[in-house]
Design a protein that fits this description.
heterodimer, A: about 650 residues, 22-stranded antiparallel barrel, about 55% strand, disordered N terminus, B: about 475 residues, mainly beta, five-stranded antiparallel beta sheet, 2 helices, 37 strands, elongated
């Protein structure tokens, strides 16, 4: 009976399939106490109370299996993705910060590149993610320092209840884009194995009108933009007992791509990059009434090979080979002191090893040890206070950080509020420290305080209508911002030159309506992100109080999805505002709006078997747009796919 | 007899009356101009007079310039006979060359016995004429290269190419050259040369590279061809009339891999070969002529080494050696260094290490000359505080007929952020391109005046070169 209640509660939770979901513990208090307690335990382990959290809707995630993480985030979240094109470098700006200030975690393991610190989202297929969660701002310290703008968390989950055993699809798209993937799952009462395979290739040779290079505009095809990518993931989950389990995950992928050039140059040289990566994770969890203990270890290997050659017989080619390895070990302990108080401690060790052609030393090692403690306190009936402290020693440099949050209902079940205050660091990357020439070992970490507050309004009028609106205001001061600048001898070196003020608003609105056989979901995201240089470096500094390059002041997306029986239709609009391309706002690139539409139909649904053809049109109105100036994105393109599930 | 006399008198009377009947007031006018005004360019001198034809005038015409303009404007009246045997009156108007910014007017009174007209002569000031062009590189791969136009009256249009043509200039503008009545702007990372109309800055065409290149500077070698220097072991021959690349000349095996600035003297091209010295090519046989090194060259050639042809037709090159700067004077005829002027740097703790001494130069050295070509101007660093060992930039000079530099700095350059280019105007004014701290923001063109004041104008991102239009010939 208790199990039935437990399952019913679970089903109740997942019936509200929202685009972005606030996992604020306050909401959970309306449910069964056992679930509340489990969520509280999970909560302190996951994110500081008061931090804004958003999940990418599972329906959207499943519908984006052929896309990369860069497209998923750009179209459906408040994160701005600066892209050089489909399959090309795609980096993030989260709350007006730089790409190096976005931390990317995979199952709780930081996977940001050790050398550059900036994550390339074009290299992660959505197919390998079961859940994508965004922690906004720097309040979540659990994964270490560095997430000044926020973190993007890619998670895999053992879904013991999902009876799907096999899933495969094939897609053909414009510009010779082919994608195929499959996953197979085996499970019994004690173990679950899942294997995923993925492959994509594209010539990426879309046609566009070049108006910037010659006296007369002319049509041309995108060159130097083709790519291919393959990956495999093997997961294993083992229930040792009712209270303990072991899991393991091996993820290997390899990609090869040409690096496109801006359309203001004659293409007379060529660049190719090959990225190979291996990620291995193993972990153990134990839970009892009052104790929750987990330990996990991970090994990450990244290899990057770069080649450049010229249309010129007598100029030598260039190449570089870079290899990095990282080992993470994390121990985490949670003690449920009482129904009102939880205590947590975590010890983490990371070892980085880099072998790079362009470093001042052939091999470079780095050790990072951190101790993190946390308290979750149910102060009054529904007011929760949460605090974290972390001490990190990064290659003999010691930094303390902290975060504190509070959440409380205002009108029970309708209106709630939360707030967060934190202090965080980001250490210089390996490239900043060791690049030859220019690496600067005297660099200071970037650091700063951040504050944010969120109001959430939920209204369930009648049985079939769900409405939610959430508004967050934030403010961040980031000091010692690192920029690469030339020295008097004209080689470049990184320096702490800027102090940035980033503030803004994030608004989420979603509405779900069920009537007759229709299910309608509408979701709208909007961000307002001023991010400015707040100090003058010298008297004539014209970057003072100017918006940082490639941080749009306004960004919005809206998605309408209509399900009618086996038929599903969705329409999406994404708006990206003007972005300045220079530090003093003297150059800019225009705003753009992109419309996408998708139609799919579940055919032959018998018992567990389902065949789903899908048709998608991207950039419906054939807009010429550039995420990065002079790197045009594809015009209207179409893809058709078929998926088999049983 | 009386009857004959009366008859003659009657004839004379009738003749006079008919003359009066033929000549009607208001018939005198100007032919071939609109209204009563002509506009003459301020650059037009007394060697290029203007003519205005008169119509309707048959008796003696006189013309006079108003008193206020007599010192710069004069007029003569000429009568010529046309091919149709008609008498034509002409005004021949001569003006002195004018370098003022504002336009000026002269009023010429034109009279015959009946009519009186006024011709207005407007001589345009050069105020709205572009005096100098600043070439700004822009950020690499960002397409933020620009041309800034500064007129004689000081008006600055910081991105004039973009404003006129509604398109970006390109990626990394390296240099601008005036050839065949047009500007050729070399865009290093675009691998392209843009051809631009002077004064209007309209795009006329492009010369596009189809082979890998890193083009830098351009010099004409004959009446249709030019050579473009390159950092990728080649020179490129182009046709500047048809905007075509004619030939890529491979430099592999010559010992020279990067050529920067070039100067043509007679039939020879003198090239700054980075890290190697000055090499000489024959302009009429670029592809096949052996590359000859100038003999006796002292010092190291840096990227910005600009060769100056002086009034004596000698070529000067700025080079650096250990602890000193060396100015090499080359005789183009013999291809040998005939004189060197050394500028040693004062060492700390030595007797020479005093305020005002020279302590070094910029990593990217700068040198230029003025209209007379009798003086060289170059950038050095000068000590201002012995205890703190602080130095500022300063411009020093060398009279080309002397063997030592003037020890007194020509201009001190306080407040200079990051020098990225230098130019000396025809009048000897010092202009520095300041890219501040090299963040991606617009830099300054700074004019350092003799009275110590500095006039600054914001130009493009990473300004690197100043071109003076007076030299456009």
């Amino acid at each position: 009976m208790r199990r039935f209640t437990y399952i019913s509660i679970l089903l109740l939770i997942f019936a509200f399939d929202a685009m972005a979901q606030n996992v604020n513990s306050v909401k959970k208090f309306t449910l069964d106490s056992a679930m509340i307690r489990e969520n509280r335990l999970n909560k302190i382990n996951e994110v500081t109370v008061g931090t804004r959290v958003s999940n990418v809707n599972s329906v959207i995630l499943k519908g984006s299996q052929t896309k990369s993480l860069s497209e998923l985030l750009s179209d459906n979240t408040m994160v701005y993705i600066k892209s050089l094109g489909q399959g090309a470098l795609a980096t993030s700006s989260f709350r007006g910060t730089s790409s190096g200030h976005t931390q990317v975690n995979w199952n709780g393991i930081n996977i940001n590149p050790v050398m550059s610190g900036s994550f390339d989202f074009s290299q992660i297929p959505v197919f390998f993610a079961d859940n994508v969660t965004l922690f906004h701002g720097s309040g979540h310290l659990k994964n270490g320092t560095g997430a000044l703008g926020g973190s993007i968390n890619i998670n895999n989950r053992a879904d013991w209840k999902d009876s799907t055993r096999f899933n495969a699809f094939a897609e053909i798209g414009s510009y010779d884009t082919y994608t195929t993937a499959a996953s197979i799952k085996f499970l019994n009462k004690k173990s679950l194995f899942r294997t995923r395979l993925y492959y994509q290739q594209s010539e990426n040779n879309y046609r566009y009108l070049n108006k910037v290079f010659k006296k007369e505009a002319f049509y041309e095809y995108r060159k130097e933009a083709k790519y291919k990518f393959a990956g495999i993931m093997q997961e294993g989950y083992f229930k040792l007992s009712d209270n303990s389990n072991i899991y393991t995950n091996l993820w290997v992928q390899s990609g090869s791509r040409r690096l496109p050039q801006p359309i203001i140059v004659n293409i007379t040289q060529h660049e190719k990059q090959e990225d190979s990566g291996l990620k291995y994770l193993i972990g153990y969890n134990f839970r009892s009434n009052k104790h929750d203990f987990s330990v996990k270890g991970a090994y990450l290997l990244n290899i990057l090979d770069y080649d450049k050659w010229f249309d010129n017989d007598y100029f030598p080619n260039e190449s570089s080979h870079n290899l990095s390895q990282t080992v993470h070990i994390i121990c985490d302990y949670l003690y449920d002191y009482s129904s009102k108080l939880n205590l947590n401690a975590a010890l983490k060790y990371t070892h980085d090893f880099v072998n790079a052609t362009n470093f001042s030393k052939t091999t470079v090692n780095r050790n990072v040890i951190s101790l993190q403690t946390g308290v979750l306190w149910n102060l009054f009936s529904h007011i929760i206070i949460n605090g974290h402290m972390m001490l990190e020693v990064n290659d003999n440099r010691y930094t303390p950080t902290f975060s504190a949050g509070i959440s409380s209902p205002i009108i029970k079940g309708i209106l709630s509020a939360k707030a967060n205050w934190s202090y965080n660091y980001k250490f210089p990357s390996m490239n900043d420290l060791y690049w030859q020439p220019g690496g600067n070992s005297a660099l200071l970490p970037e650091k700063g305080f951040s504050y944010d507050a969120t109001l959430t309004f939920i209204q369930k009028s009648k049985e079939h209508i769900y409405f939610k609106s959430e508004i967050t205001g934030y403010l961040m001061n980031i000091n010692n911002w690192i920029m690469w600048l030339p020295t008097m001898n004209w080689y470049w070196e990184p320096r702490n030159v800027k102090n940035v003020l980033s503030y803004g608003l994030e608004v989420l609105t979603e509405c779900n309506i069920v009537f007759n056989s229709y299910k309608v979901k509408l979701g709208v995201n909007y961000t307002y992100s001023p991010s400015i240089n707040r100090d003058k470096n010298f008297e004539e500094d014209d970057t003072y109080h100017k918006q940082l390059p490639y941080v749009p002041l306004h960004k919005a997306n809206a998605r309408l999805a209509v399900d009618y029986g086996k038929l599903s239709f969705s329409y999406q609009i994404c708006y990206t505002g003007k972005r300045y391309t220079s530090e003093d706002e003297s150059y800019s690139t225009v705003a753009y709006t992109i419309h996408d539409a998708e139609l799919k139909y579940d055919m032959f649904t018998k018992k567990h078997f389902k065949l789903t053809p899908k048709l998608r049109v991207n950039n419906l109105f054939n807009a010429f747009y550039e995420s990065t100036q002079y790197y045009p994105m594809p015009l209207r393109n179409i893809s058709g796919s078929i998926m088999i599930t049983f | 007899m009386k009857k004959n006399l009366l008859f003659v008198l009657l004839l004379v009377f009738l003749s006079a009356c008919s003359k009066e009947a033929l000549i009607t007031p208001g018939q005198l006018g100007f032919d071939g101009i609109t209204g009563n005004e002509i506009i003459i360019s301020g650059s037009t001198g007394s060697d290029s007079p203007n003519e205005v034809i008169l119509k309707g005038g048959s008796d003696q015409v006189t013309a006079r310039v108003d008193f206020a303009a007599e010192n710069w404007c004069s007029v003569k009246v000429n009568k010529v006979t046309s091919a149709q045997s008609e008498e034509i009156w002409k005004l021949v108007i001569t003006t002195e060359e004018y370098t003022g910014n504002e336009s000026r007017k002269a009023y010429i009174s034109v009279n015959n016995s009946i009519d009186e007209l006024t011709l207005i002569v407007t001589q345009t000031g050069r105020g709205k004429t572009v005096e100098m062009i600043v070439v700004s590189e822009g950020q690499f791969t960002k397409g933020t290269a620009s041309l800034s136009a500064i007129t004689y009256d000081g008006t600055t249009t910081w991105n004039i190419f973009q404003d006129v043509n509604q398109m970006p200039l390109g990626d990394v503008a390296q240099s601008i050259s005036y050839i065949d009545g047009k500007y050729f702007v070399v865009l290093n990372n675009s691998r392209q040369i843009k051809v631009i109309e002077p004064q209007t800055f309209k795009l006329l065409g492009t010369i596009d590279y189809e082979q890998s290149a890193s083009p830098r500077f351009m010099v004409p070698i004959n009446d249709s061809e030019a050579i473009v220097s390159d950092l990728m072991r080649q020179l490129t021959k182009v046709n500047y009339k048809t905007y075509e690349v004619l030939e890529y000349i491979n430099l592999s095996g010559t010992g020279v891999s990067q050529i920067e600035k070039m100067t043509k003297v007679g039939n020879k091209i003198f090239c700054a070969a980075l890290g190697k010295g000055v090499v000489v090519l024959d302009s009429d046989n670029i592809s096949n002529s052996p590359m000859r090194f100038v003999e006796g060259f002292t010092g190291n050639i840096m990227k910005t080494a600009k060769m100056i042809l002086d009034k004596n037709n000698k070529l000067w090159v700025f080079a650096t050696a250990s602890g000193k700067t060396v100015l090499n004077c080359i005789d183009p005829a013999t291809e040998k260094v005939v004189k060197t002027v050394e500028i040693p740097y004062a060492k700390a703790e030595s007797e020479d290490y005093v305020v005002g001494c020279i302590t070094g130069t910029s990593g990217y050295n700068r040198m230029d000359t003025d209209r007379t070509r009798g003086k060289l101007y170059f950038y050095m660093t000068m000590l201002v505080n012995v205890e703190r060992k602080t130095a500022i930039g300063a411009i020093f000079t060398l009279d080309v007929d002397k063997d030592a530099i003037d020890p007194i700095p020509y201009r001190e350059l306080p407040g200079l952020g990051m020098m990225y280019g230098m130019g000396i105007s025809p009048d000897g004014d010092v202009y520095l391109c300041d890219c501040l701290n090299y963040t991606a923001q617009r830099g300054f063109l700074r004019k350092y005046k003799a009275d110590g004041s500095v006039e600054s104008k914001r130009v493009g991102i990473y300004p690197r070169m100043v071109h003076f239009t007076e030299y456009d010939k």
